[in-house]
């Protein structure tokens, strides 16, 4: 198996798009291609990450549509659908294509345009991730699953509403300086929880989770170019190596898990990624976690091994996970502020980490970051992909 | 002195208690003052909202065009018992709500126009409007319709509103929905917030109404990635 | 015939599972018999969900995860005004969703009185 490097990255703004899904994906892909300065080299494999185009954008066979729009035929291409973990799964698939020797220059492009449909339809679409007969039919949505998880987690470990708000405040502060973030508005504890107007500002979505505990519905696209590490010198930028990838699955129905406060798929995926990279959580300088709900950032920071179980919220309280702290988590703003174009998120996490490890993250740069970690949470934690990146080859 | 013909064209007036201003703390920590506007301020508001009448996104074109005509009609004494409440942040206009009294018992809600997005300004102002009709003007019901189906569905479910299809709403004659006194008071703890009184100093910051920077304002309203590039 | 929501019992080893899987979780058997989910249980966690999908026009939906005395866990709707984790609840089968004019039945829980 060959070592694989990321040689180019690109991403659109996240938010509410007027551009079509395909156009966004073309723009991101073009940015990655320009970033790498591929010259005459031909892309010989394309993997697309997307979750909802079949339902929201009247598009199936999206990889073929992208190839056509970018006139990259006859390059082989296909899409990977793994719910909200589609992005990291597509990067993993691209990695395997290069590592195996089958491809020498792979484009991985993610995209999602949820806002082509209204909010109700978007909620409905995402609810298809839940178990069709044991959860979906009851009107279960992802926020509802997160709410039930949060209630148990908070009871067990003493995490409070204030801790959840701290995640939102931190990630909004981070997103405020990320010019590509969806939400660029700082929020305060007074506005979210302690002030007199909380009922209107921050109503419950699935109690105990409130409006600002849930990430926005975002449109956006991102892309990365992968090449064998041995050829990385042919491209324009400092390469970043994919040091480790791990993935694990779990029961789909949240109720069937032996301890519904545990996220074993996160734990196992992280362990496998670290093992492959020959690294430990202590070696990581910067993380992009999957904060679709604020409680998940706290839980994932523990399951991935950065803090002992039940201590994640204390590290947050001490400011350790803020930009400038010991282990910055989601300096880009995370899903909460950077945004969450669902199928694309995993790709954008990798893009953000590459920018960090190259020293190109500008106002939200983690100084001297050499190793990065991302976790992409599919389903409600029943399909998780973890990736470890390392600067240089 | 008004001449006879002018007097004929002016509608009769009901006594309307002024709306006591209140302040709300928004999610980003900023304070919005919600107060009644006077007809003197209409020209400033018309100037601010005119550019939005060309924005098709999110029904801004039709809502702002209608608010424009309602405010102008109010200023020129051609609307019966109308009012207008505004929300300002550091004096900059953040949103407008308006309506009128059909008679002592029934009110008609016209529009909610949020000019600052992402902070639930519309939600705060709509609730203030209902508060005005029910608690201060002591009405029994407020008749409501909306241009946006998603927007309407939200209020329909959230208060909840009851259908009153026998009444045509004057905004186009669509069947009305109504908020009753009873429903208002049940929903109040959940939906109506704000702090009174507003200090003289804070209230002074909301006069005169300041225009938002047009470029920023339009990008905000447009709320698309392309507008922000 | 009354509507039921069924768990599956493995004909080889008797293990009960819900939702159903293709292979028995204990012995990998493939023959099962349906066992209606019924009776009492303990509420493990719950939420009032406000951002509802299509088919629902109410302000919120109360949902919960219940440990049934039968030995399996389920997700269901709660017809309970003031849920508390640990409370005892009783299952019945009722309409939980209406999609395109068709009623979908599932488990609804009420408090056990006394």
Top-tier CATH class of the largest domain in chain C: Mainly Beta
Largest interface: A-C, 36 and 31 residues
Which range does the strand content of chain C fall in? over 45%
Number of distinct helices of chain C: 0
Give the mean pLDDT of chain A.
Answer: 97
Write a structural description.
The complex is a heterotrimer of chains A (393), B (229) and C (114). Chain A is 36% helix and 18% strand. Chain A is of the alpha/beta class and 393 residues long. Chain A has a domain at 4-118 and 217-234: Peroxisomal Thiolase, Chain A, domain 1 (3-Layer(aba) Sandwich). A nine-stranded mixed beta sheet of chain A has the order 3-2-4-7-1-8-11-10-9, with helices on both faces. Chain A has a two-stranded antiparallel sheet with strand order 5-6. In chain A, α7 (161-176) packs across α11. Chain B is of the alpha+beta class and 229 residues long. Chain B is built from nine helices and eight strands. In chain B, strands 1-2-3-4-5-6-8-7 form an eight-stranded mixed beta sheet, sandwiched between helices. Chain C folds into two domains: 6-35, no CATH class; 38-111, Beta Barrel (OB fold (Dihydrolipoamide Acetyltransferase, E2P)), CATH 2.40.50. Chain C is built from no helices and eight strands. Chain C has strands spanning 6-10, 16-17, 32-36, 40-49, 61-68, 73-78, 88-99, 102-111. A five-stranded mixed β-barrel of chain C has the order 4-5-6-8-7. A three-stranded antiparallel beta sheet of chain C has the order 2-1-3, with no helix packed on it. The radius of gyration of chain C is 15 Å and the shape is globular. Chains in contact: A-B, A-C, B-C. The A-C interface holds A 119-121, 123-124, 127, 131, 133-135, 137-141, 143-144, 147-149, 151-152, 155, 203-209, 252-256, 260 and C 18-19, 44-56, 61, 63-66, 73-77, 85, 96-97, 104, 106-107.
């Amino acid at each position: 198996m060959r070592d694989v490097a990321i040689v180019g990255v690109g991403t659109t703004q996240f938010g509410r798009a007027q551009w079509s899904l395909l156009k966004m994906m073309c723009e991101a892909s073009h940015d990655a291609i320009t970033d790498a300065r591929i010259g005459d080299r031909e892309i010989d494999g394309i993997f697309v990450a997307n979750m909802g185009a079949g339902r929201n954008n009247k598009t199936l066979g999206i990889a073929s549509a992208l190839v056509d729009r970018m006139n990259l035929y006859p390059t082989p291409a296909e899409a990977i659908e793994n719910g909200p973990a589609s992005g990291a799964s597509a990067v993993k698939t691209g990695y395997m294509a290069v590592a195996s020797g089958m491809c020498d220059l792979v484009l991985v492009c993610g995209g999602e345009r949820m806002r082509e449909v209204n909010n109700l339809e978007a909620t409905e679409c995402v609810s298809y991730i839940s178990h069709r007969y044991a959860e979906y039919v009851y009107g279960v949505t992802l926020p509802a699953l997160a709410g039930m998880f949060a209630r148990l987690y908070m009871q067990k470990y003493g995490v409070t509403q204030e801790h959840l708000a701290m995640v939102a405040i931190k990630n909004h502060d981070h997103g405020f300086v990320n010019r590509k973030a969806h939400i660029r508005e700082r929020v305060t504890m007074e506005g979210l929880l302690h002030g007199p107007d909380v009922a209107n500002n921050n109503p419950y979505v699935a109690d105990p989770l409130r409006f600002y505990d849930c990430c926005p519905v975002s449109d956006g696209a991102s892309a990365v170019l992968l090449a064998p590490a041995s050829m990385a010198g042919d491209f324009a930028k400092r390469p970043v190596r994919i040091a480790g990838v791990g993935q694990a699955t779990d029961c789909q129905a949240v109720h069937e898990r032996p301890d519904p406060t545990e996220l074993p798929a996160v734990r196992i995926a992280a362990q496998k990624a670290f093992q492959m990279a020959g690294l430990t959580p202590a070696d990581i300088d910067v993380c992009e976690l999957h904060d679709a709900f604020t409680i998940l950032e706290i839980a994932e920071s523990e399951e991935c091994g950065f803090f002992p179980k039940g201590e994640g919220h204390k590290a947050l309280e001490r400011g350790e996970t803020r930009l400038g702290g010991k282990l910055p988590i989601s300096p880009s703003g995370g899903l909460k502020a950077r945004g969450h174009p669902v199928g694309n998120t995993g790709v954008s996490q990798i893009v953000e980490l590459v920018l960090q490890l190259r020293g190109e993250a500008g106002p939200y740069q983690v100084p001297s970051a050499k190793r990065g970690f991302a976790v992409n949470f599919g389903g409600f934690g029943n399909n998780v992909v973890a990736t470890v990146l390392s600067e240089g080859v | 002195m008004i001449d006879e013909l002018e007097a004929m064209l002016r509608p009769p007036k009901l006594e309307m208690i002024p709306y006591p201003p209140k302040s709300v703390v928004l999610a980003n920590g900023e304070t919005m003052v919600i107060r009644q506007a006077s007809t003197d301020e209409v020209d400033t508001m018309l100037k601010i909202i005119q550019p939005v009448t060309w924005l098709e996104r999110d029904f801004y074109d039709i809502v702002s065009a209608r608010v424009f005509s309602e405010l102008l009609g109010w200023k020129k004494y051609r609307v019966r018992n109308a009012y207008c409440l505004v929300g300002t942040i550091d004096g900059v206009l953040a949103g407008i709500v308006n309506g009128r009294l059909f008679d002592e018992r029934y009110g008609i809600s016209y529009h909610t126009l949020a000019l600052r997005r992402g902070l639930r300004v519309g939600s705060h102002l709509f609730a203030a409007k209902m508060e005005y009709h029910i608690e201060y003007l002591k009405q029994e019901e407020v008749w409501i319709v909306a241009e946006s189906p998603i927007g309407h569905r939200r209020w329909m479910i959230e208060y909840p509103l009851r259908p009153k299809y026998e009444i045509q709403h004057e905004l186009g004659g669509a069947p009305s929905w109504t908020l009753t006194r009873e429903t208002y008071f049940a929903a109040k703890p959940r939906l109506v917030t704000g702090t009174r009184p507003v200090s003289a100093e804070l209230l002074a910051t909301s006069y005169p109404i300041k225009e938002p920077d047009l470029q920023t304002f339009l990008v905000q309203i447009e709320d698309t990635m392309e507008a922000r590039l | 015939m009354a509507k039921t929501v069924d768990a599956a019992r493995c004909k080889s080893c008797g293990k009960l599972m819900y939702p159903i899987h293709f292979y028995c979780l204990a012995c990998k058997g493939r023959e099962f018999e349906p066992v209606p989910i019924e009776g009492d249980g303990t509420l493990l966690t719950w939420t009032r969900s406000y951002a509802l999908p299509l088919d629902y026009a109410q302000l919120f939906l109360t949902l919960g995860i219940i440990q049934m005395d039968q030995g399996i866990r389920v997700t269901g709707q709660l017809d309970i005004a003031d849920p508390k984790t640990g409370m005892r609840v009783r299952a019945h089968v009722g309409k939980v969703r209406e999609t395109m004019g068709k009623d979908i039945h599932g488990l609804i829980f009420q408090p056990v009185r006394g």
